Amino acid sequence: MIKVYIADDHSIVREGMRSLIESAPDMQVVGEAPDGDVALSEMAKCQPDVFLMDMSMPGCAGLQLIEVVRRQFPDVSILVLSMHREEHYATRTIRAGAKGFITKTRPRAELLEALRQVSRGELYITVELAHRLARETLTGEPDEQPHTRLTKREYEVFLSLAQGMTVGEVAAMLHLSSKTVSTHKARLMDKLGVSSLSALVRYAMSHELI
Predict the structure, then answer these.
(1) pTM of the full predicted structure?
(2) Between the CA of residue 47 and those of 93, 101, 124, 142, 201, what are the distances in Å?
(3) pLDDT (tens digit per residue) in 37-62
């Protein structure tokens, strides 16, 4: 029996995922949470095989949540379920330690197969993502969009600021000083070619990152 823990801040999504997973004879939902902080506090008790997580949630989330789960629960496979298109997040999530990435628009049967695959410790990625990862490995160059050239930490700060968090809030979430976050903010804005927070938000929205 594959034990799955669900983390998503939308209760309707969690209910839908729970219903789908429990309809499979080889799976069961052992817990669920509306954010990463609750999930981390419950994981040791629930002992799931797979952590099914949304990328955008309150508290510890995104790439940071993937890294924390990988560090604290190395035997748990992570499958990212996201509303964002694959090209925006998938490569970074796999590099951060997730075993798979699937969008919420994919067929229900595909999600179940993805859960089965990552539970075996295998990667679950589309053919398109496999080609992208292979191309980047061979050339050493990521896609040409400016945000793909951000470091992992810059990307986390970028998304947090774009979603309305203050520098202080980002610093607290990432366990950094406000000065360090401000430095990341200045560097990422330079790389993105934006000069204001409103322009940064517009950039994120135009590229469907938030």
Answers:
(1) 0.72
(2) 22, 21, 21, 36, 38
(3) 999 999 999 999 999 999 878 778 88
